[in-house]
From TrEMBL, chains A, B:
UniProt xrefs under PANTHER family: HTH-TYPE TRANSCRIPTIONAL REGULATOR RUTR, TRANSCRIPTIONAL REGULATORY PROTEIN
InterPro entries: Homeodomain-like_sf, HTH-type_TetR-like_transc_reg, HTH_TetR, Repressor_TetR_C, Tet_transcr_reg_TetR-rel_C_sf
DNA-binding region location: 37-56
PROSITE patterns: HTH_TETR_2
Origin species: Streptomyces malaysiensis subsp. samsunensis
MF terms (GO), sorted A to Z: DNA-binding transcription factor activity; transcription cis-regulatory region binding
UniProt xrefs under SUPFAM superfamilies: Homeodomain-like, Tetracyclin repressor-like, C-terminal domain
One Pfam family recorded for the sequence: TetR_N
Any single biological process term in GO: negative regulation of DNA-templated transcription
Name of the protein in its database record: TetR family transcriptional regulator
The HTH tetR-type domain, residue ranges: 14-74
Length: 240, 240
DNA sequence: TCCATGCTGGAATGGCGTTCCAGTCATGTC
DNA sequence: GACATGACTGGAACGCCATTCCAGCATGGA
């Protein structure tokens, strides 16, 4: 086995599109958006640029592949059937939507570069695999919610937009603001900055700044989801 | 006059931070995200890099300034008092929120680069002037809606997240997908792509693809806003 | 045995953001 | 009217980036 393996491979482990994308994700996670360079990639993979370009069209495609990989992983853990639930108590569509949303939220939280990447990727090529994947996952639950067919598209889109918008903007909050600040310091600094705004132009923002300090991102994200879900339920009563 | 003007200025019109930002916005509008280079900028302003760097810290700051300028302009047109309404019929907070949202939607529609820029800018530095500006504009109406103070932050954030998320993702749809396609062709291509997805994995998406074809972005965006607003009203009844 | 083909990585290219610096001009001072 | 000052300019250069080119390698089939 060892012989065959060694024979069929130039290096300890052959280069492949998978290995490249995996390394790219690791690099993005470790060093952020700007940390993914072909130099760093060739170094980490102990190879040259030509080898990478043989497996991958260009950097944009590599970023797209990284995005798709991470999103797919995030949606894969979703409790489609919830086989471990107490039996006879399947999750409601509402709970499932919350779970899917939270999965995406956490994926963006773990991979902060996803926020920007999704924004460019989704609007640039909605035919890619990532938009339909998210859309499908949410849409099935929207249908289960009892929303009439004519509104499926609108409702599912709205949900997706909220989820990606909110998760994206929260992402960097969690990871501190570029400097070495931790989350509390960062929140505190932002709240302080808000409190020093012009009292005339920013009455509301100043009045609300204190709520910024101790707030829990996840909790607030879910509260937003609930707002949208409640709106959906009110607009399309399940018994209609 | 001409003499004094000519005397006090090195060139026909002196370089200034304003002029630079203005040129940057024009360049971004005309040639897209990647079109803004210092080379193109120096050419358009008939100067050298050093002159630009005297007025501006670096490219990130320039992009931030461009973003702030455009957002400020978008929020400035909002009908704060609606002085031209039939008299005695002021806009409801709900209508005003719709108007503010639509203003942002159209700004992103006119300047597609705003979508990505807002995503990076907002999450990178929430203390900048753009987040508070939007937050304030929406928050005042949320308060007028009768939402209890304890929920101001959550509700306003949710609204902002939906607006920016939805507007951002719709932006590029409107401007065709990179190629020379117009809107209808683009929508059609996307719908066709969705209809060719795996029938098992994408039941919902395939079933809904046809709704993609003729849909109106603005209308759908507003429908989403209404969903959120309805959710807000249901969660916080005005008479409570 | 030898060649075709899939795959590799070092060297080179052109464009980018950014820096450096020698210079220019309006202005204040005497 | 001469001169020093300091805001402001723009050409040349630097280092890093994505991308391309190509001479070579290993391997499976003839």
């Amino acid at each position: 086995m060892a012989t065959r393996t060694r024979r069929s491979q130039r290096r300890t482990e052959a280069l492949s599109r998978e290995r490249i994308v995996e390394a790219a994700v690791e690099l993005l996670d470790a060093t952020g958006e700007g940390g993914l360079t072909f130099r760093a990639l060739t170094e980490r993979l102990a190879t040259g640029p030509g080898a990478i370009y043989w497996h991958v069209e260009n950097k944009d495609e590599l970023l797209g592949a990284a995005t798709e990989t991470v999103v797919a992983a995030a949606l894969a853990v979703e409790p489609t059937g919830a086989p471990d639930s107490p039996a006879g108590a399947p999750d409601s569509p509402r709970d499932e939507i919350r779970a899917v949303a939270l999965g995406l939220f956490e994926a963006i939280d773990e991979h902060p570069w996803l926020a920007t990447q999704l924004a460019t990727h989704l609007s640039r090529s909605p035919w890619g695999s990532v938009a339909p994947r998210i859309f499908e996952s949410l849409g099935r639950r929207v249908r289960a919610l009892g929303v009439p067919e004519g509104s499926w598209f609108v409702v599912t889109s709205a949900l997706m937009h909220y989820i990606l918008g909110a998760a994206g903007q929260n992402a960097a909050n969690a990871r501190a603001g570029g400097g070495g600040l931790d989350r509390d310091e960062f929140l505190d600094a932002t709240a302080a900055a808000w409190e020093e705004l012009d009292p005339d132009d920013y009455v509301f923002t100043r009045a609300v700044a204190y709520q910024m300090r101790g707030h829990d991102d996840r909790e607030q994200f879910l509260a937003g989801i609930d707002l949208v879900l409640t709106g959906i339920a009110a607009t399309h009563p399940p018994d209609a």
